[in-house]
Amino acid sequence: MIWIEVAVFIACISVGARLGGIGLGAVAGIGLFVFVFVFGLPPGGPPGVVIGMIIAVITAIATMQAGGGLDYLVAGAARVMHRHPRYITFIAPILTWLLVLASGTTHVIYALLPIISEVSERADVRPERPLSISVVAGFQGVRASPISAATVAVFGFLAPMGVTLPQLLAITIPSTFVAVLAGALSVAWRGAPLSQDPEFQRRLATGLVAPSKSAPTLDGRALRNARGSTLLFAAGVALVVLIGAVPSLRPVYDLPSTAVIESDQVPMGAAIMIVMLAVAGLTMIFFQASPKAALQGSIMTSGVSAIICIVGVSWLGSSFFEGNRALIVDGVSVVVRDHPWTFAVGLFLLTTLLFSAAAAVVILVPVGVALGMPASLLIASYPASSANFFLPTYGTLLAAVSFDRTGTTRIGRYLFDHSFMLPGLVATVTAVLVALAIGTVLLP
Questions:
Q1: CA distance 357 to 386
Q2: H or E segment and range at residue 163
Q3: Over the stretch 76-93, which tens digit does the pLDDT of each residue have?
Q4: Which of these, 169, 218, 381, 413, has the minimum number of CB atoms within 10 Å of its CB?
Q5: CA dist., res. 248 & res. 359, Å (int)
């Protein structure tokens, strides 16, 4: 019976991923209906606290975007790249990593990609080099960001094991940064110089090269609001990290005698939600971030889509796991105990299949916790969820190909021979190994 259930699970994910957008979460609901009403599996449930934290964080980011904060960050990155064009292959991914770390979303790089392509072309640097590793750096930045959906999900499962947010970040931030540098080195001398690339010369000769887009500019009141919203959001992130580092900062309240919870201290998940929602409200009041603009912005639209997908897929996975808990734990535990690295491989493959690191984390990390895997190994496996590059169907990959008007950044003829495969694999493997080394020291 379990193989029939697996077939239903895979079929729902495959069809949903093909539909794209909220289709993944909606089609997962079909599988959930079959599991519960046809196969009689327990309903399970989506991770409520994790979903709540993601909603609060996305609201804060979307409000910062409405206040001009993301444009401000992108404009600063563009100035740095224009000053040192010859080193664009290293500067661009580092800036991308920093921006994604600060914003918690890869969507910020859509504005950076045309700038990277333009600077590369003017410096006679093959745009494929910085564009490919910058897209990969965006995925690594999500793993390092304390307010990304995937990191919030991981922390939600690790907190009961005694892992603090600073401990998690002390592993993910340096490991992903080293991974970005390794990925940049892997493509630093890739391909012929732009002036010698036959495809670019063909596009020049036929007039296919279109004018590049200019970087975003801000001035006057818009600049003040952009700076303020960015600083306020950064302060909110810093406060979240501080609260995680000093648990005594979380207030203690009077616990009713009828309460079923054991602790009278504000949970870390609730603290994150409160801080992020407060940041969003203050940004609207003091920096003229329009609620309507925040709701209609790309961050909120993508965030809502991600939440629906996470709810549907995680609920489907929860039902399947709860219905087959003993069989899954007994079967997987043998492999993981003998070969712990297989957990990272599973996380990589699941992310590739779901096109969502957060959804993969929500499904697989609870399995690792149930198996009794050490926190250091779970955290070291987390960068393996940077697998969105493996299939050239993710939005940022396709955008990079589109923005490279020289034609050097390619999808490839055989699906897997695309520009992002080499830096993606190098960065992912490096991040996992470095995270494992740091984790064994910090979390013995």
A1: 7
A2: none
A3: 766 776 677 778 899 889
A4: 413
A5: 31
